[in-house]
Amino acid sequence: MTEQELLAKKEEFIRIYQANIFRKGADKLLDYLCSEESDFFTAPASTRYHGAYAGGLVEHSLNVYACLKDYLSRPRVQSVYGMQFSEESIAIAALLHDICKMNFYTVDYRNAKNAAGQWEKVPYYKIDDRFPYGHGEKSVYMIQFFMHLRKEEAFAIRWHMGFSGPEDANTVGRALEQFPLAFALCTADMEASYFLEGEVAMAKKATADSDNNN
Prior knowledge:
Blueprint: H1 3-20, H2 26-34, H3 56-72, H4 75-79, H5 87-96, E1 105-113, E2 119-127, H6 136-143, H7 151-158, H8 169-178, H9 180-196, H10 199-213
Antiparallel strand pairs: 1-2
Helix pairs in contact: 1-3, 1-5, 3-5, 3-9, 5-7, 7-9, 8-9
């Protein structure tokens, strides 16, 4: 991702955040995300799977927001499932669900052969967890240093990994059933991860970009 693209993603995140999140302390949390103490807007979303590049975390957060908005706009979801949440809750859950990945990855180097068959050092991301407090629960913990989370929001962020996390499946199932926003966020997270940012999606994007440049 170019510096211009990184800046555009950051500006889009800030615009959505400020247009929807007005809770006491929200401004201080955003200031923290934008500060030199944070790498939120340049961090990857993973080491090798979805969003494994600079800016992958903010891009993933924006993708999850778009997917969550789309899911919750469906008539069946609203009329049959009764899922209706405030714009603030939607923005908080989607934009901040992976705040735990801030200051979580570092760049290291390893030897690999280039196209000419010569060895060279290439950069890669690795995990450097200096605050081992889990995943979803870590995001909840970090957010609540700055602003209060409503129960539905906290449980959504805590359980956004759904059944792909290490927790007991029965516990996950009860959480998703009791807190519909958690189910919706989990669905949006998977949709963004697999269909917008996964290996197949990235390969299609690379092919499209190549075609456009020819």
